Amino acid sequence: MNRICTICARGGSKGVKNKNIRELLGIPLIAHSIIQAKNSNLFDVIAVSSDSEEILKIAKFYGVDYVIKRPNELATDTAAKIPVMQHCVSEVEKLSGLKFDIITDLDATSPLRDISDIKNCIELLELHHEATNIITAAPARRSPYFNMVEKLENGYVELSKSLTTKSIIRRQDAPKTYDMNASIYAWRRNEFFNCESVFTNKTLLYEMPEERSQDIDSELDFEIVKLLAEKRGTLG
Q1: Contact 30/21 with Cβ under 8 angstroms?
Q2: Can you give the pLDDT at residue 236?
Q3: Which end of the chain is least crowded, N or C, by CB within 10 Å?
């Protein structure tokens, strides 16, 4: 069974300038995901997709197997993640002559994951033969069933009824919900090339703790990740 790990990173970033190459613990942010993928010993191939020559140069330096130049139409702010991954895997298959049974993506902006999280995700997917894919998430700090309110036209608010047919008054009555952390995605081959969304009726969830689930979208996020990373002392 052949496995590929993709790491997809654009050159531009509005929330945090050049975040994918910004240093964290003395090395570029994207390098942490590359090192984790290599140290996991799970993948036949590790590939980085980017529109940025600088990112691709860093990826080569840290020893990925393939660097894939992303076309302009897949490098915009509105470009979806799945087509970017599909392009990367297709290009690697052409170059390598391999066909990959399991496709795993590590998000460069979520470096706090453990290698055990990567291993557990792949093991969970391979164990459940009917599952199409895996997403990762942390328990929601605030349940949308209990905490989400809607502003009415008259300016007043009410508890949102968009998620349920009736208002949930007590926390204990709210269904358990999760925040997607954009850390790890994994697919089976056939489903991967046919899907347009990370959600199917056979998508599994792998739960990660909050302290390993911080995603970098802002300067505040970067400072939080930096603080947690320095406390751990190492990532990867």
Answers
A1: yes
A2: 65
A3: N
